[in-house]
Amino acid sequence: MDIHVFHRRRPPVTTPCTMENGGCSHLCLRSPNPSGFSCTCPTGINLMPDGKICSPGMNSFLIFARRIDIRMVSLDIPYFADVVVPINITMKNTIAIGVDPQEGKVYWSDSTLHRISRANLDGSQHEDIITTGLQTTDGLAVDATGRKVYWTDTGTNRIEVGNLDGSMRKVLVWQNLDSPRAIVLYHEMGYMYWTDWGENAKLERSGMDGSDRTVLINNNLGWPNGLTVDKASSQLLWADAHTERIEVADLNGANRHTLVSPVQHPYGLTLLDSYIYWTDWQTRSIHRADKGTGNNVILVRSNLPGLMDIQAVDRAQPLGFNKCGSRNGGCSHLCLPRPSGFSCACPTGIQLKGDGKTCDPSPETYLLFSSRGSIRRISLDTSDHTDVHVPVPELNNVISLDYDSVDGKVYYTDVFLDVIRRADLNGSNMETVIGQGLKTTDGLAVDWVARNLYWTDTGRNTIEASRLDGSCRKVLVNNSLDEPRAIAVFPRKGYLFWTDWGHIAKIERANLDGSERKVLINTDLGWPNGLTLDYDTRRIYWVDAHLDRIESADLNGKLRQVLVSHVSHPFALTQQDRWIYWTDWQTKSIQRVDKYSGRNKETVLANVEGLMDIIVVSPQRQTGTNACGVNNGGCTHLCFARASDFVCACPDEPDSRPCSLVPGLVPPAPRVTSISERNPVLTNTLPTTLRSSTTRTRTSLEEMGGRCSEKDAQLGLCAHSNEAVPAAPGEGLHASYVIGGLLSILLILVVIAALMLYRHKKSKLTDPGMGNLTYSNPSYRTSTQEVKIEAIPKPAMYNQLCYKKEGGPDHNYTKEKIKIVEGICLLSGDDAEWDDLKQLRSSRGGLLRDHVCMKTDTVSIQASSGSLDDTETEQLLQEEQSECSSVHTAATPERRGSLPDTGWKHKRKLSSESQV
């Protein structure tokens, strides 16, 4: 290849460029001219008249996106050469581009990273300004005069605006958009224009505040891509990749004619001075033509694959007059131009006050919902039901959530991290409340009065409570739970409600301390997922994802009625005013109906992947009080309101503070004792209503010789368990009454246990095949953002699917372990998967191609759980083969056997609404 000669005795030669770079600001090059050198500048930049200093940058240039980078072509020099803007980031799919000539910044969208970013034109000071709520941002325009950025999103079908730093974001247009693409601004006129290449392609115009929307052209359009405005001639120009034309019309859509034809596949279009420039996907080039005639088409740059948007910039052009003036038009938040002047506007979801200039600090009533990787908000104060992301960090697999109106914090569960966390609605102050001992936390509820937190854990089959900061954790219910899911509290009544979609689905109620547990509904239920309370009418509402309906009943489970039938796959619901709102996994939407009639069904928000829980935040929801609302009821740790009184309780794991079960009692710290002395020394400091101000110190039970005085029993000093006991109304109970009551409770528990054991044995005497239950409820998987359904064999005589985060055992059964369920569709958004399932089932419940009876299912479950070896499995299968030959089992078999006849058979899904 190349070769050079080196000699160590070769003397150095002094050149004019040796001293101070020849006085050049950039490059000093040897030259045969009289001076022996010349100064020159980087590609695309002009040399100043002094012949030594280069211009600060390009004054007139093209800037374009090429998916993986951004490049510039200077128009200051007589040749075309592109240079890469040295932005030190990895670009994935850069689409739209815009420039702020005042600050010398370039703005761009990346549809793969789902963000809008900006940087200086020299590549420095990169920052992401919009990072949430974006899908496919095809168009972007910078209002350098009004200091705003506008963009279109084909994924969300919205046009939005925000400040140049991304703050005060607002949705301007959200209705009747199909696939909005290019957007351009005419600040002086107060108009914005955009193309829509959807099924009914069109060019539209509105005020820059979204007002006065008008369709300009909607005929003879194919794929209108690029768009630009010629302010000098008051014309609108666009490029159509389907008709292969660049056309022009007046700003009102009149006098339309073709400017350039044919063009191969134009995408971006821009204009500067007397020329139009466009990018072409097919030729992989940038082209130029006269803007008036379309003649003199030349090639600017070629061999540029991945060409997208393009903008022409002249930094010497004046910005024009800002309609909002120097004081933002007197607006507290956004000032947006319009044809008749300007208007004040608020960020999405926030109302403008009566003065027309000031915005409320935040929405008053809104929906708060989770979608696995995000928490979002939809204001009910405004007419546009558009979602706003709550910028909470580190969200992986968010399932359940609730809100505390006192502190303004959102609480949520993450089943990937197995934590319960809380944060402010602006995303700050995120902290872990419960970080250990969780498996699959499906339901979450905040007791805003007593400042307690409740949750269900499907993995551990428990219902627990703690203080809102996660302290004083206590298990309230840990028996006869199968798949507890949703949970709700009614502090004014002292009630706790929850759903259980297990083997015997049911809805239950208890006091807030877990006592007086009662089954409200256990018939005609499938998968009772979501649960909510109407505190005004005092009714419970729930969604059933198997029976495809929304139902309600009173607080005692009576007066039950079906509100809505034929819903797809509802998961969670909430109530506000006269509306019931719910999330649906299959339709990927939030919907609502009238809570009285079940009519007026509306879609609030569509096309949302991974919808989970939903709640309403409103001043009307978290109202009322109870005895625990003042000073925690006098309790040292936990205070639980009940239907007629309240109780103090201690956490399951003692903390550093002595715990008292008596309101008002503040025991001192324990004395140093041996490990065997589990009970601390208590100092009886009671209110004057209970005893005199004189305090009396007691030693441990060992020091008292095991004696317990009558007054000690009254004050609760003889109780050393963590169980909650009722608060004394004033006078203490006699010790014998306490002992007698405890014995009575113990006797009742023994009787209940014996009755449950008897029923359990009796159920085993029935036909095990008929008592078997095999059905599927979608499960959460931590490895994906899609809602999927996977089989998780259980050791019991039934098989059901839940969304526990564990992947479960290997489901590649041997030939002896027959398949239990066929046609399980994945909720991944592929309609073909649902269609495949529909074809497997008839219109009245359906039959599978391969038929398996319930007894055979039972054999398979026993085999998969390890209770039968392969020989036993084969033998049982052969015994049942003839009996099962005529039995057809659907993908989601109906309940049978010992369960009451609830009409389950006759209410299975139609094929058009199959759900697994």
Automatic annotation (TrEMBL):
Key words of the record: Cell membrane, Membrane, Receptor, Signal, Transmembrane, Transmembrane helix
InterPro entries the UniProt entry points to: 6-blade_b-propeller_TolB-like (IPR011042), Cueball_EGF_LRP_Nidogen (IPR050778), EGF (IPR000742), LDLR_classB_rpt (IPR000033)
Cellular component GO terms, alphabetical: plasma membrane
SUPFAM superfamilies in UniProt: EGF/Laminin, YWTD domain
Gene3D superfamilies in UniProt: TolB, C-terminal domain
Keyword DNA damage attached: no
Domain EGF-like positions: 16-55, 323-360, 627-660
UniProt-annotated stretches for the region Disordered: 863-916
Membrane topology: Single-pass type I membrane protein
Transmembrane feature ranges: 737-758
Pfam family, one: FXa_inhibition
Location of this chain's protein in the cell: Cell membrane
Annotated LDL-receptor class B repeat ranges: 104-146, 147-189, 190-233, 234-275, 408-450, 451-493, 494-537, 538-579
Domain of life per record: Eukaryota
Family in the record: Belongs to the LDLR family.
The protein's name: LDL receptor related protein 4
UniProt source species: Myotis myotis
Taxonomic classification: Eukaryota, Metazoa, Chordata, Craniata, Vertebrata
